[in-house]
Amino acid sequence: MLQDELLESRSVSRSPTKRRESVYTSPSKSRLGSTANDKANIEPELRRRIGELTKKCDTLENRYRNLKEIGIVEANANMDKLRKQCESMTNASNNLIASLKAELEAQKVLGQQSRSLQRQLKERETEVARLTTQAEEATGQLSSAQTEVKALQTKLAAARSTAASLENAAAKVPGSAIKNGGNRANAAITAEAAHAAQFAQLKEDLYTDLTGLIIRDVKKRPADNLYDCIQTGSNGTLHFKLVVPHVSSANFESAEFQYIPLLDENRDRALVDVLPEYLTVDITFVRQQASKFYTRVIDALTKRRSTAAL
């Protein structure tokens, strides 16, 4: 109904003069409608309604214009907000991309440095392994040299002892006995004994060279013989004494030998780590096991030990 009124009011409000002319100059309607009294009664009502509709139309037009202006303003404001947001997001994205690119470049540099450091580390590890091997070889050579020096010193001491013994034996022979023709036999015997002693020393030296065993001294005691021995090897030098009892021929095989190690806590610390436990304490064994005992001594002093085992 309101829509019909708006349409009617628009058609009427377009031309107030024509509207009045249509009201006052329409002979067809006046002839078909009614009398002049009826026209007089309808005209004020129509004017009132026309005025109301005109006011409503003006009000709606004002509202429309206001809403249109508000919509345009808000749209512009929203557009500005969106533009600012887009600009800020674009700037943030550009900054993020730039920072990611910079970080990527930094990571590339770090990766190159890391690969370079890894290569250097491998080279250093190889160099350390080579130097460690050289150090181990040098340590082994030094140990062998020290062992050889000790063996040579011991041999020198034994040779000097033998030479001194021979000189003492020769000095005991008086010069008058040598000049005397009747004592020439004694001189010959003494010379032969000295030669035999020298020959025995040569055999002992050969045995020492072949086995590394040096017999420093022999003491004959009432119940046994005491041998002062040194066994050399690549792992060290073992100083020990061996007691061999005097027995009859019937008990020769069952005679018990006694092994007495002479180990110094400071000097032989490295040697004690290599020796089996039974060679660091006093032990006894029968003559039949003497060769087995000596074989184990040789093994302990000559077999190469790995670094992990040590």
From TrEMBL:
Residues annotated as domain Monopolin complex subunit Csm1/Pcs1 C-terminal: 201-287
Assigned keywords, A-Z: Coiled coil
Gene3D superfamilies, sorted: 3.90.1150.80
Chain intervals with Polar residues compositional bias: 23-38
Superkingdom per UniProt: Eukaryota
Region (Disordered): 1-40
GO cellular component: chromosome, centromeric core domain; mitotic spindle; monopolin complex; nucleolus
Listed GO MF terms: microtubule site clamp
Coiled coil, from the record: 43-169
One biological process term in Gene Ontology: meiotic sister chromatid segregation
CDD domains reported for this sequence: RWD_CSM1
Keyword Ribosomal protein among record annotations: no
Protein's name according to its UniProt entry: Monopolin complex subunit Csm1/Pcs1 C-terminal domain-containing protein
Organism field: Aspergillus carbonarius (strain ITEM 5010)
Lineage: Eukaryota, Fungi, Dikarya, Ascomycota, Pezizomycotina
